């Protein structure tokens, strides 16, 4: 009876199919008639406006009795998370970019950096270290510049290159700024080319953060 009321034959569809947002494929509507954009996780749905089955979503009518209408949800109340328009399953590990890795947990996601944020100090065999982006590689790398290149670049700087021995000094690294997840540790040190006191920082993580409840997605 529902099909007879909502589905008309023959089909009358727009000449141009709709343009869908990222992560929402074109699918047939509930009548199997016209192309529509599949509804994503948490979006409203009904008999005609179907959910994205390729992501394991079904139209969940359990909340319809409260007056909020049906929404797309995982089958059998399976948890998941959506990042940049793509849905990931519970426990799935993914990389939004080559520099970060995330895991879907309880409707949210935790991420850790894949590139080291270490600080390389000058050494006798590498007096002028510099971090640069390498074509074809994701993470920046440290390189050792020749002295003539270093002096040429420093000629344009405000302060001249030190010409006297520098006694190195620095504090211990501070505690991580975040009790969970990715944070920063800082220290004050003069271990730089001008022997000036400066604040240095690096990434740190004490432990992964507990996942947010499903009602409060990250």
UniProtKB/TrEMBL annotation:
SUPFAM superfamilies cross-referenced by the UniProt entry: FnI-like domain, Growth factor receptor domain, TSP-1 type 1 repeat
**VWFC domain span:** 79-145
Cite the GO molecular-function annotations of the record.
Answer: heparin binding; integrin binding
Q: Where in or outside the cell is it found?
A: Secreted
Keywords in alphabetical order: Cell adhesion, Disulfide bond, Secreted, Signal
- Give a yes or no for keyword Signal in this entry: yes
What is the similarity comment for this entry? Belongs to the CCN family.
- Role of this protein: May play an important role in modulating bone turnover. Promotes the adhesion of osteoblast cells and inhibits the binding of fibrinogen to integrin receptors. In addition, inhibits osteocalcin production.
List the protein's name. Answer: CCN family member 5
């Amino acid at each position: 009876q529902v099909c007879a009321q909502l589905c008309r034959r023959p089909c009358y569809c727009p000449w141009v199919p709709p343009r869908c947002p990222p992560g929402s494929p074109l699918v047939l509507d509930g009548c199997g008639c016209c192309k529509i954009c599949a509804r994503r996780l948490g979006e409203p749905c009904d008999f005609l406006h179907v959910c994205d089955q390729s992501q394991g979503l079904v139209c969940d009518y359990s909340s319809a009795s409260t007056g909020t209408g049906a929404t797309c949800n995982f089958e059998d109340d399976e948890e998941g998370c959506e990042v940049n328009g793509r849905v990931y399953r519970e426990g799935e590990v993914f990389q939004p970019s080559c520099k970060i890795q995330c895991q879907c947990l309880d409707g949210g996601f935790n991420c850790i950096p894949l590139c080291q944020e270490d600080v390389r100090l000058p050494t006798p065999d590498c007096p002028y270290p510099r971090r640069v982006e390498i074509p074809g590689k994701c993470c920046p790398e440290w390189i050792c510049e020749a002295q003539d290149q270093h002096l040429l670049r420093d000629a344009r700087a405000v302060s001249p290159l030190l010409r006297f021995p520098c006694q190195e000094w620095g504090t211990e690294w501070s505690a991580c700024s975040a009790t969970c997840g990715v944070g920063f540790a800082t220290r004050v040190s003069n271990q730089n080319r001008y022997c000036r006191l400066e604040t240095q920082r690096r990434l740190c993580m004490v432990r992964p953060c507990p996942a947010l409840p499903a009602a409060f997605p990250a």
